UniProtKB/TrEMBL annotation:
The gene is panB. It holds the Pfam family Pantoate_transf. The lineage of its organism: Bacteria, Pseudomonadati, Thermodesulfobacteriota, Desulfovibrionia, Desulfovibrionales. Homodecamer; pentamer of dimers. Mg(2+) binds at residues 43, 82, 114. It comes from Candidatus Desulfovibrio kirbyi. This is 3-methyl-2-oxobutanoate hydroxymethyltransferase. GO terms for cellular component: cytoplasm. It is found in: Cytoplasm. Its main location: cytoplasm.
Length: 272
């Protein structure tokens, strides 16, 4: 079944939505084949793929390249691409142009925007570009937030988050990602909205979940408290790299079956 923003919205209250980050063709193909509903080309690419300390230096070109490779792998998954820092904050024209490129050149089906950018969400949805909102911990605002901290812990902060969520939905957001908020607040927001919520560090009551794949597969070095490790891919890679190095150094690789031969290799004796 093809996942679309419509099937995403229809899933609310019926089935949990499964989303993972993806940044390249090979990994995205496996996720798509495993039935993951949506692939998020997250700007966490800056951290996990490029080794930056935060997402602020991720460019539109970084996102375009990653998104196009993920989109080529997505036969059934919905591809949602993050709008990187400053790509949707300067002017409406620039926002439309950048988001348009993520769909036209990057092959995304929708974009995700961090924060309460209702005018932008309205302009984009009117243009035919579906938008996923993102509230709670919004990593592009790390310096304003004073670090990567749980958000919405006071009544005032929780009320603001609920108001922002309603405003984004009213502006046309087809879904809302909630990052690092108390589970009870995410549950309240989820009940208040008609569109599905996708949680990361936001408890069980969200309509779906997303994780950074390197975190849930045991590759990231110190994942956050909300991450469950579903696999030991890091260990599997280490063991494969070590075995390859050993076999190469010991002259055991390549073996005969890994080599090309001709029917008569003595042919090459004639080379001068
Ligand atoms: O960039 C990202 O990976 C995100 C997370 C919330 C999943 O936005």
């Amino acid at each position: 079944m093809k996942n679309t923003v419509t099937t995403f919205q229809e899933a609310k209250g019926r089935e949990k939505l499964v989303m993972l980050t993806a940044y390249d063709y090979s990994t995205a193909r496996i996720m798509d084949e495993c039935g993951v509903n949506a692939l998020l080309v997250g700007d966490s690419l800056g951290n996990v793929m490029l080794g930056h300390p935060n997402t602020l230096s991720v460019t539109l070109d970084d996102m375009l390249r990653a998104c196009a490779s993920v989109a080529r792998a997505a036969n059934s998954a919905l591809v949602v691409c993050d709008m990187p820092f400053m790509s949707c904050h300067v002017s409406k024209q620039q926002t439309l142009r950048n988001a348009g490129r993520l769909l036209a050149e990057g092959g995304a089906h929708a974009v995700k925007i961090e924060g309460r950018y209702c005018h932008e969400v309205r302009a984009l949805t009117r243009t035919g570009i579906p938008v996923m909102g993102h509230l709670g911990l919004t990593p592009q605002s790390v310096h304003t937030l004073g670090g990567y901290k749980v958000q919405g812990k006071t009544l005032a902060a929780a009320q603001k988050l609920l108001d922002d969520a309603r405003a984004l939905q009213d502006s046309g957001a087809f879904s809302l990602l909630l990052e690092c908020v108390p589970a009870a607040l995410a549950a309240r927001v989820t009940r208040a909205l008609a569109v599905p919520t996708i949680g990361i560090g936001a408890g069980l009551q969200c309509d779906g979940q997303v994780l950074v794949w390197q975190d849930m597969c045991g590759i990231s070095q110190s994942p956050a408290k909300f991450v469950k490790k579903f696999g030991e891919v890091g260990l599997a890679l280490r063991s494969a790299f070590t075995a390859y190095a050993e076999d190469t150094r010991n002259g055991l690789f390549p073996a005969g079956e890994h080599c090309y031969a001709t029917t008569d290799d003595t042919l090459f004796d004639a080379l001068v």
